[in-house]
Predict the structure.
Amino acid sequence: MMIGRTKDTTVKKIELTQATEALAEYVKTIEAEPVVIVHRGFALAALVPLGNMDYESIELANNPQFLAILAEARASYEREGGIASEEVRKLFEKEED
């Protein structure tokens, strides 16, 4: 089992062929140190505490379609600019009237 350190957090790195414990056993340790499964030096998966993240946020952050929509929106903003927050507020105020 290899153990590495990043900043103030100890990360337990486990070679895929050595990851023989039940998943629940690894999950029990992630508050103290996240677990990264590696294979031939490449990280494959990580078990980390999610803190206040909800399931929907995790799902969206890993959804290729959602990430593509965000990328297109950012590119559009770079090309065409955007609407100032004051303008958005005015638009919503008009809708409420």
